[in-house]
Amino acid sequence: MHRPANLWIVLADEAGARLLRHRSCHPGRFEPLACACPEEDAPVDDGHDTGSCALLPRPTAPTSITQIAGIVNEAAALGLFDGLMLVAPPPTLGLLRRALRPAAGVCAIREEARNLLALPEPARAARLATLLRHR
After folding, report:
1. 50-99 pLDDT, tens per residue?
2. CA 116/CA 135 separation, integer angstroms
3. Quick count: other Cβ atoms within 10 Å of Cβ 130?
4. Sign of the torsion formed by the C-alpha atoms of 128, 130, 131 and 133
5. Geometric angle at alpha carbon 18, from 14 and 21, rounded to 5°
């Protein structure tokens, strides 16, 4: 199976959403790109960040999906990533799928019906690494 060199990962739940980047040249590293999480005042530094995380205005749950999907849609139109993974509980995953334009949707290589946003950062990174190994 083709492993994208520049994989974008959307993590979402009923409270918010995060956008991460995983590059194949940096296994185990997940760079935060954007965060639309109402309970957070600042991006979390997990020690693996090599860039900055854009903090979006405090959203409501549907708005956070729309904000992150908007970023993904624009990036897909510009060809900024070559793979997309969506990770969210089933109802949120459906909202996310509907918010993506076809150009972004065709880049989706995996959808996972789980809530990883509820996990602490180290556990989240470990679960993501496991999901990537079992694609």
Report:
1. 444 554 454 455 678 899 999 999 999 999 999 999 999 999 999 999 99
2. 17
3. 9
4. positive
5. 150
pTM for this entry: 0.81
**Distances from the Cα of 84 to the Cαs of 57, 58, 106, 133, in angstroms?**
24, 24, 9, 15
- What was the pLDDT predicted at 52? 47
Cα–Cα dist 103/51, whole Å: 25
Helix, strand, or coil here: 77? helix
Q: What is the pLDDT of residues 1-26, one digit of tens each?
A: 467 889 999 999 988 999 999 998 87
Q: Which CATH number fits domain 6-133: 3.30.420.60, 3.30.70.360, 3.30.1330.60, 3.30.70.2470?
A: 3.30.420.60
Q: CA 135 to CA 129: how far, in whole Å?
A: 10
